[in-house]
Structures are given as C-alpha cells and as structure tokens.
Amino acid sequence: MTPITEVEGRRLALSNLEKVLYPQTGFTKAEVLHYYAGNAEVLLPHLRDRPVSFLRYPDGPNGQVFFAKNVPPGTPDWVTTAEVPRSEGPARMVLVQDLASLMWAANLVTEFHTHQWVIQDPGVADRIVFDLDPGPPATVVDCCEVALWLRERLAADGIDACVKTSGSKGLHLLAAVRPTPSEQVSDYARRLAVEAERAMPRLALHRMTRSLRPGKVFVDWSQNAARKTTATPYTLRARPEPTVSAPVTWTEVEECEAPEQLTFLAPDIAPRVQDYGDLLAPLLDPDSAGSLP
C-alpha cells in the first residue's frame, strides 16, 4: 500500500520508500525524500520561479536515466506550471514553488536542473554560470585553479562569483548579474573562457572538442544559452553515491589538494548549512548583481 502523507495541506502518495537507489551506500528513496525535505529552506529559493527540467532515475543511477522537460503525466493540478517559449514552439513546464511541490517532484526521483532566468522574464538571464569539467587525468583540483582565475577575472569587471561542486567531477562558478539577454551573457562568458585558455593554455580549454579535453579543464560557457539548464544548487545527482551539487567556500577551493575534499554526500549538507548558511545567497540578492561590461 502506498503511504499517503500531507505536506502543507496537500496530500501526497509516496511510493517505494524502502527501494535502495544508491546501492554503493544503501541510500534509499525514503532518505532521498528526507534529504530534500530537510534542506528545502536553502534549495527552494534557487528553484522558485525557474522552470524545472527533471533528470529522473526511478530505479537508481544504474537503471534508466532520462530527462523530462514537459509537465510529467499525472502531475497534480495544485503543482504550478507555466508556458515556456522554445524555438520549436511553446511547452509547459513545472515550477517548484513550495515544499509540497518539492516533495511531489522528489518522489519521482529527480535531479533538478534550472535555467539562468526566471519565468517572469524568459530568456533574460539574472545569473551567469561556468561549468568547469575536468578531462581525466585532470580532476576537480585542476578545476579549482581555473575557478580562482575566473573569480579574479570576473571581479575585475565588478562581478562577484560564488562556487559549488557539480556533484559529479567538476565545479560550477555562478554570479548574479543584472537582467541581461541570455545571448549577451553567453557572448561574455565565451570571451572569458577564451581568455582563460589563453592565460592557462596547458590547463584550460574553451572548445567542446572531445579529443582536446584529456588532462584539461573544459570551461563550458554554453549553459548560459536561454534553452540550456544547469544542475540546481543542492540537487542530488544520479551518481554511484548520493552526491550533491554543494556550495563551497573560496577557502575550500584555495586549499583543495584532493578530489575527496570537494565531494559531499547528502548527509553532509545539513551540517554545512548549519555552519555556513546558504553560501549561494548572493545569487538571490538583486543588490549583489553585477553589470556585464
């Protein structure tokens, strides 16, 4: 029998709670739901008003993994949805606006991926992102070196960057910017990626060419395109362990000497939030937004 629970006055059917989704650690679906509920206070502000793409893995990361951008079948009528413009025609997507809709979405077993813009102004970015992706044998330690260069380069333009782990192999650099068309943000991000490659030719790479990537850090600027999404802060990832896309301090980046120092699992996050609060809070503050040159 599927348990029924009530969240903020909404009735939810939570299924397969004992299913082990991360066999390497024995992490269950119930623990996934507990993680999202326990960290909703810091996660929800980064989801609110941003159309969500779900990366679903109902049988764990070793099972079928698929993206769902449109509103999933069976979505309750109390879950907020919105029409989103696309080049191939408008689509209807989910907005996770509150704890009840977060728990409904988490029950589908998801990673959360969001755009760099809010639904009130689609295609006009309020943040910039760089996805630093290491090509083996490069690791997140190499990403840290590139991240520190990008932080200083952004600061020279009056833009204050925050950083989080991707929850996979690399890092995400993010910064709040004053509302700017996504095309302009993409162009600026690409220029900085090119500059990074010129400044660190043995380490940084701005091109997506696979054959060039071993041993280098790909500075992926393309996720600033209006159609693209990036893993939302605090989302779980479909990896062998329940890793999280976790905000980190710049001191942790500066002092990183081994990948495990910047690997965070679901149980690590609540203590970090207690110690640091939301390290990405500046992304939510319009007063901290920089202007692109």
TrEMBL record:
<keyword id="KW-0436">Ligase</keyword>
<dbReference type="InterPro" id="IPR014145">
    <property type="entry name" value="LigD_pol_dom"/>
</dbReference>
<dbReference type="InterPro" id="IPR033649">
    <property type="entry name" value="MtLigD_Pol-like"/>
</dbReference>
<protein>
    <submittedName>
        <fullName>Non-homologous end-joining DNA ligase</fullName>
        <ecNumber>6.5.1.1</ecNumber>
    </submittedName>
</protein>
<dbReference type="Pfam" id="PF21686">
    <property type="entry name" value="LigD_Prim-Pol"/>
</dbReference>
<dbReference type="GO" id="GO:0003910">
    <property type="term" value="F:DNA ligase (ATP) activity"/>
</dbReference>
<feature type="domain" description="DNA ligase D polymerase">
    <location>
        <begin position="28"/>
        <end position="279"/>
    </location>
</feature>
<dbReference type="InterPro" id="IPR052171">
    <property type="entry name" value="NHEJ_LigD"/>
</dbReference>
